[in-house]
Design brief:
The protein has one domain. Helices cover 45% and strands 13% of the residues. Strands 1-2-3 form a 3-stranded antiparallel sheet, with helices on one face. The protein is globular. The termini are close together.
Amino acid sequence: MTDDQINAAIAGACGWTDIFEHPEFGLMGVASETHGCRTAVEEYAHCLNAMHEAEKTLTNNQFYDYSGFVDRFAPRRESRAYLGATARLRAEAFLRTLGKWEEAQG
């Protein structure tokens, strides 16, 4: 998935609506708590803070699955894989947890 596809998918899972690609400003949408104001979609694929907020939407069972995906895809197998995971890796694990990850078409 491209970064924009990842960002749009996570935004949708986190309650964003009306997500679209603006020709000048990039990916835009309406966050659930903004009373209908359009704004730039979070950069989940690159921002640990944005992923932290996304992680808060997972149930305990989902978080267990999520941490398993992070551990599985971390470059080094270690007990602290989650702590060193990049935003991109966390974003992929998040979408895999929700069954929304799409493999690259080639």
